[in-house]
Amino acid sequence: MELSVLNIKGEDTGRKIALSDAVFGAEPNEHAMYLDVKQYLANQRQGTHKSKERNEVAGSTKKIKKQKGTGGARAGSIKSPLFVGGGRVFGPKPRNYSFKLNKKLKNVARVSALSQLAKDNRVALLESFSLEAPKTKEFISILNNIKSTGKTLVVIPSVDQNIVLSGRNIPKVKVATAADLNTYDLLNAERVVLLEESVNIIENLLSNK
């Protein structure tokens, strides 16, 4: 599969780059993508939720009413879950939601996501560029020139603070390095914009692994 390289003005440079079939032309594995996204979302959870059970609620231990002769059920504690202000039965406790996935499965998931994007013609190649200073307006102009107006993932070869700072305040736009790509960000984007130098890094990371 070949894609044309665009410049920051949205014009075709006349150059084309052949994308590896092993990374951009594989058969998507939906279950692998599901597991990788599930792990990503699970890792975002703080797991600090907590409710008090009956032994943790503050309240009198005095017997509320006599055992017999009231016509109602027995009640031994105001902290019972049956009363307002009582403890909660089987309430949430702090826990760790993260779980392990094999590296090979995570690589299969990323390859599947990239292949699906390429198959749907949602991958664009952009000529490598740099900004002299963080300029959000200039970054928006570049995205408009290449007609990326929806959810866009911009993949740069390495950390460039000027590009990162220029794109971080733009709604629906995320800037990521090629080495830090994850399945969730790929599937969440309507379009992925790869800087020219990012292609080799991605292919080296994901091919034959």
From TrEMBL:
GO terms for molecular function: rRNA binding; structural constituent of ribosome. It comes from Pontibacter fetidus. It comes from the Bacteria. Forms part of the polypeptide exit tunnel. Residues 45-75 are annotated as: Disordered. Keywords: Ribonucleoprotein, Ribosomal protein, RNA-binding, rRNA-binding. One of its GO terms (cellular component) is ribonucleoprotein complex. This is Large ribosomal subunit protein uL4.
